[in-house]
């Protein structure tokens, strides 16, 4: 009886997965086999392996890696300090709040901040550096992307640090480990699951960015997400856009499988260590 009830409650979830996950993927794969004139072809897949699209793919992975790396460099110390503050839940809420604001609004806000007559250039001019070209550069693109993704990196790391048994750190210090050694040999390895979850939450969406590349980078940064947008909305070549999306889905699935399997293995190691 309990099994039947459990299966019954699974029906809405399975319907949701079928309609909004499986069906869109099937449609994307279907459209990838047609050219701009509606003829069945494998040419889109052959075209993807040309130097233009391979370079675009490498560029997408490189920028996603940079965004993830800088997000991690900022998020881990921030999450570590949060666990040691008095009102950590309040500070965590303040970090999460910007993620509730529409992405387009945040992008336009940075257009004003980084513009020629914006606040940042105003400060640089005041201190004697002078007006700089900040918008439409790799720096502005990575900076804004890191700002947007930071909450998604901090949250899983914060949760891992909160679940860490403090007695393990105390034991390491009692045995003569320096603060850096305790962090390197105890804290970081035992919170690696949160780091991997955060990297997954940042790296995967960073692969398909397109709005920020247009507004902040001025289309000087070309990613797979930008190419998909161009093919679907500008050139109307849905087949090529769908082909790029297929490879993007495969890349995301591989990343999720790799990080997921390692995460489970790390959790087993943590249980043994505790």
Describe the fold and architecture.
This is Spermidine/putrescine transport system permease protein. Keywords: Cell membrane, Membrane, Transmembrane, Transmembrane helix, Transport. The chain has helices at 2-31, 43-48, 51-82, 88-96, 103-114, 119-126, 138-163, 166-174, 179-190, 192-207, 211-215, 224-233, 238-273. The chain is mainly alpha-helical and 274 residues long. The protein has a single domain (51-236, 245-273), classed as MetI-like (MetI-like fold). The two termini are 38 Å apart.
Shape: globular
Helical coverage, percent range: over 70%
Q: What fraction of residues sit in β-strands?
A: under 5%
CATH architectural label = Orthogonal Bundle
Radius of gyration, whole Å: 23 Å
Provide the number of structural domains.
1
In angstroms, what separates the terminal alpha carbons?
38 Å
Largest beta sheet, briefly? none
In DSSP terms, counting alpha (H) and pi (I) runs of 4 or more, how many helices? 13
Query: From N to C, what is the helix and strand string?
Result: HHHHHHHHHHHHH
CATH topology: MetI-like fold
Mean pLDDT: 88
Number of strands: 0
Q: What is the assigned CATH homologous superfamily?
A: MetI-like
CATH class type: Mainly Alpha
GO biological process, one term: transmembrane transport
Membrane topology: Multi-pass membrane protein
Keywords: Cell membrane, Membrane, Transmembrane, Transmembrane helix, Transport
Subcellular location: Cell membrane
């Amino acid at each position: 009886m309990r099994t039947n009830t459990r299966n019954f409650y699974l029906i809405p979830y399975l319907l949701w997965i079928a309609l909004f996950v499986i069906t869109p993927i099937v449609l994307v794969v279907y459209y990838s086999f047609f050219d701009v004139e509606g003829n069945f072809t494998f040419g889109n897949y052959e075209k993807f392996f040309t130097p233009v699209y391979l370079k675009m793919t490498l560029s997408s992975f490189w920028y996603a890696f940079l965004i993830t790396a800088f997000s991690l460099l900022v998020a881990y110390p921030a999450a570590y300090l949060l666990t040691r503050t008095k009102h950590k839940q309040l500070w965590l809420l303040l970090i999460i709040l910007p993620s509730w604001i529409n992405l387009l609004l945040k992008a336009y806000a940075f257009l004003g901040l980084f513009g020629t007559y914006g606040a940042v250039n105003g400060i640089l001019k005041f201190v004697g550096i002078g007006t700089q070209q900040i918008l439409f550069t790799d720096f502005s693109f990575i900076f804004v992307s890191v700002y947007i993704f930071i909450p998604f990196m901090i949250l899983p790391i914060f949760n891992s640090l909160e679940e860490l048994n403090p007695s393990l750190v105390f034991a390491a210090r009692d045995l003569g480990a320096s603060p850096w050694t305790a962090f390197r040999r105890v804290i970081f390895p035992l919170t690696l699951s949160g780091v991997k979850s955060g990297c997954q939450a940042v790296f995967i969406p960073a692969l398909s960015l397109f709005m920020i590349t247009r507004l902040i980078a001025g289309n000087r940064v070309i990613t797979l997400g930008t190419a998909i947008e161009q093919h679907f909305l500008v050139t109307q070549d849905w087949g090529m856009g769908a082909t790029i999306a297929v490879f993007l889905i495969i890349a995301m699935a591989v990343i999720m499988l790799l990080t997921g399997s390692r995460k489970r293995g790390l959790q087993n190691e943590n249980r043994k260590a505790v």
